[in-house]
Amino acid sequence: MPFIACSSCKARFKVKVDTIGKAIRCPKCQQEFRAVALHSAPRSKTDHGPIVYAGIGVGAILIGFLVVSMAKTSSTLDDEPAAAAEVAPEKRLERSPTKAAADDDAMSPEDLLARRARQLLEALRDPADPRLPGWVAYGEMHEDRMKEGLETVAWSDLAQDEQYGKYDAYLNLVAGDDATRRFAKATTVESTEVLRLGSGKGKVAARLKNNLDETIQDVVLHFVGTGGQWKLAKIEREPITTVEAIAEAADDRGGRSGATALDRIGRRRNPLGEVSAVEPYADEPKSVGSDIARQIQMLSDLSATVEAGRARATGREIGKHSVPHLLNALVPLDFEDEADLQVATRIAQALTDLTGASHPIVPGMNTGSLLGEGATDNEANRRKWFGWWRDNKNSYTGPPAPTFGEEDG
Questions:
Q1: How does DSSP classify residue 397?
Q2: Cα–Cα dist 197/340, whole Å
Q3: CA distance linking residue 319 with residue 297, whole number of Å
Q4: 3-class secondary-structure state, position 100
Q5: Residues 226 and 338 in one domain
Q6: Are the beta carbons of 214 and 243 closer than 8 angstroms?
Q7: How many domains does the chain divide into?
Q8: Which member of 188, 278, 346, 354 has the lowest number of beta carbons within 10 Å of its beta carbon?
Q9: What residue numbers bound the domain in which 120 lies?
């Protein structure tokens, strides 16, 4: 039964529900008034009603807030689907578990770039993969097309809806033609190798193998660092071919087994080695230790130009045992330092005398070059010397014979 209060004496009392709204007489002061139900009954010591009502009110407010937020989110996604697709993968990475973040911190920059290349290649199996749009550098792709004359307006000058309108076209360029799409559906990533890393750019070579028909394809991925993430700016593909075709072609040239030929081709396609200390030959005589140390010292003394020629002659006298020590002398050199670069030039010349290979290191030619592109890319050529050692250390026997007219010493 609802409570009412007399409008004259303020006395409160219960009435029947059907009394509400009618004119009645107060039993206490005998004054007439219209019965109006009070909003709440008088509280007793054990009455928890207001607490319950307050909880219900707060809950209703929270539910209303969530409904409005969900409606706004849905509206935003409907209005800008391309923008949501681009940002979402990166935000998912930012919300990764603490353990995954710790694992990332423990990985080297090269490993992180190689992992992104592998993830992207795996996503290319399905062009509808939701991760893929967030891993593409659309602006850089657009600017490359401008350089080729395929676009006339800079990316930054395009309206936002015009930029979004190009997303699908650029994703199709990344996914490739129909033959590439069919190839990609059943591929595995056999290998990845970081060819370049630095200045916000990265370059990764990878080999893909189709598990259905034994076809393979070599690709080179060009990345740019954007918002703390590596994004694909360009992908270069070699023609799709078969493992057997590569092996047969190598057999025709060298008469070796298919496995050996494939191994040799793999080394040739990836000539860059890891710049790190190498072990001397196990049969190195103790007597040559002082000669090798003197050779390295002469190559490092930039104040005496004649000494460099003597050092190269000394290396030829020592023979194959000089090579690993020369490589180790290359490891700590900083190519941003002009003096170190001059020393590296001398060492590379000495290595050419000893091996017959030619990977020149040239002062003043390192700035602006791309690793692995051009004979004057100094960092690439340093890595090629270590690639030569990886591939030839077991078969190398000593300096090549001097050519006709070459002075010995």
A1: -
A2: 21
A3: 17
A4: helix
A5: no
A6: yes
A7: 3
A8: 188
A9: 88-239
